Amino acid sequence: MSIYVDIEKNLGSFRLHAKFEASDETIALLGASGCGKSMTLKCIAGIETPDNGKIILDGITLFDSDKKINLPPQQRHTGLMFQNYALFPNMTVLQNIQAGAKREKNKAKRRDTVESVMDSFGLIEFADRYPHQLSGGQQQRVALARILVSSPRILLLDEPFSALDSHLRFKLEQEVRQVIRKFGKTVILVSHDRDEVYRMSDKIAIMSGGRIEVVGTNEEVFANPQTRSGAVLTGCKNISAIHRVDENTVFASDWGIELKLPGLTDGISSVGIRMRRIRHGNGENSFRCRVVEEIEDPFYYTVMLRPIGAKEGSPLGWLMSKEDWKRLKAPEVVVCLPPESILLLND
Q1: pLDDT value at position 164?
Q2: Exposure string for 186-198, b = 16+ CB within 10 A, e = fewer
Q3: Mean pLDDT of the region 287-315
Q4: Could you read off the pLDDT of 12-35 as tens digits, one per residue?
Q5: Whose CB has fewer CB within 10 Å in the chain, the N or C terminal residue?
Q6: Across the chain, how many H-helices and E-strands are there?
Q7: Integer CA distances (angstroms), 267 to 91, 120, 214, 241, 346, in order
Q8: Residue with more model confidence, 143 or 103
Q9: Burial, 220: exposed, middle or buried (Cβ in 10 Å; 0-12, 13-18, 19+)?
């Protein structure tokens, strides 16, 4: 089961251009609010119509602007779950799920399918309740059950955990991962939460300003996000613009330091380093820094550092365990920014 998407849609001052493909895997569209993630899902589901391009699902063309093909939503067999779950408030749990099985004309088979799905989601005991009588987690399970009872070709999840608290979110992530494994087909997950997409997906597409910037496995994208926005979205807190000094040296203007970067290629406009990748002690790209702030979390310290002699600018954040910082704590420390840990970024 596979999907190919290459679409454009003009929304006035905003232009969407989404191009990616996936096959029997979970791909996450990771981006900030307003970058076009949800619009992409709506175009796949047929709720919105692109201006140009094509969408092909399992060899069936859902949309092709050149061939004038635009299948209606009910013929696309896509399962889209909205952020608010979009349950019918005047219907019980049973009736909501039955509504998802309308395509099955055989009454006995439809009844058996609904009962089987409700049982697998643990919803039998809630059959006569209405959506307002359910918790957020229970509503999510009903929404998923209503989608899966229709046997969709693809599952589209639009910020499925955004309305849940952190404890419930973690629990329901586990349940949804099991649903995805049982589903066994392509899933597209939309989120702005980097940790969520890393746990839930096989592949990540970084989306910014309506465009897909980078696509790769989770490991590939986090190791090399390639763009400044990709670095931000994957959680890099230390990012600086650079000026080329020579073939292997740049000046990081936001931090006020020179960095040796062997093998530096053209087109790199910024560098970044994750707070965990800064090392204590001497080495290549080592600097004596003044501690300007200590930020305490339940299990870690983020120590904000400014290199000695650097002009006022953005300090570097250094994340470490409380035990390590208590052992190293001093007004000034020597740290190293290993070249292999520095992210090379373009705009």
Answers
A1: 72
A2: bbbbbbbbbebbb
A3: 94
A4: 999 999 999 999 999 999 999 999
A5: C
A6: 10, 21
A7: 56, 52, 16, 12, 6
A8: 143
A9: middle
**36, two tokens:** 């076009």
Residue closest to 272 by CA, chosen among 290, 284, 254: 254
Helix 136-148 vs helix 107-120: angle between axes, to the nearest 10 degrees? 140
Question: What is the model's pLDDT at position 82?
Answer: 84
Structure tokens at 146: 């209503």
More confident residue, 102 or 95: 95
How far, in Å, are 283, 287, 316 from residue 331 at the CA level? 20, 14, 15
Please report which confidence band the pLDDT of residue 163 belongs to, taking 50, 70 and 90 as the band edges.
low
Q: Report the C-alpha gap between 284 and 337 in whole angstroms.
A: 7
What is the DSSP track for 241-304?
A: EEEEEETTEEEETTTTEEEE-TTPPTT--EEEE-GGG-EES-STTEEEEEEEEEEE-SSEEEEE
Residue 249 CB neighbours (<10 A): 15
What the block records as the tokens of 26 is 């979970």
Take residue 107 and report the two structure tokens written for it: 């009454």
| 53 neighbors 128 (Cβ within 8 angstroms) | no
| Stretch (H or E) spanning 9 | strand 2-11
Mode of pairing for the β-strands spanning 154-158 and 69-70: unpaired
pLDDT in tens, 243-265: 999 989 999 999 999 999 987 88
